[in-house]
Amino acid sequence: MATAKRKSSSKRSSGRRYGKSASKRVESAMRRRKKGTLKSGRGGKGGTVKSRKQAIAIGLSEARKKGAKVPRKRTGKRSARKK
Q1: What is d(CA 76, CA 79) in angstroms, rounded to the nearest whole number?
Q2: At what angle do helices 52-65 and 20-35 cross, to 10 degrees?
Q3: Are 56 and 31 in contact (CB under 8 A)?
């Protein structure tokens, strides 16, 4: 039998998840983190970002605000904490 290519699930039918402009934003955020100019939070109150993951999150957030193709944020599952 010849090797048949399987189609991926129907959920991911539309090629790229992230647009090019989104990756540019993340790239920019990573550079600013390396330089030490990337800040977290609003205004001048936030400290400098040291975490790589945080820098990526900030880049994606900026891309979302500018209308780039970025998937929606995942909402965390609510834990059943009843007191």
Answers
A1: 9
A2: 140
A3: no
Which residue, 55, 54, 4, is CA-closest to 29?
Answer: 55
Residue 19 · residue 66 · CB < 8 Å? no
Which is more confident, 11 or 63? 63
Contact in structure between 64 and 55 (CB atoms under 8 Å): no
- Indicate the pTM of the whole model: 0.66
pLDDT of residue 68: 86
- DSSP string spanning 16-60? -SS-HHHHHHHHHHHHHHHHT--B-SSTTTS-B---HHHHHHHHH
Taking the domains of the chain in order of start, what are their residue ranges? 16-65
pLDDT > 70? residue 1: no
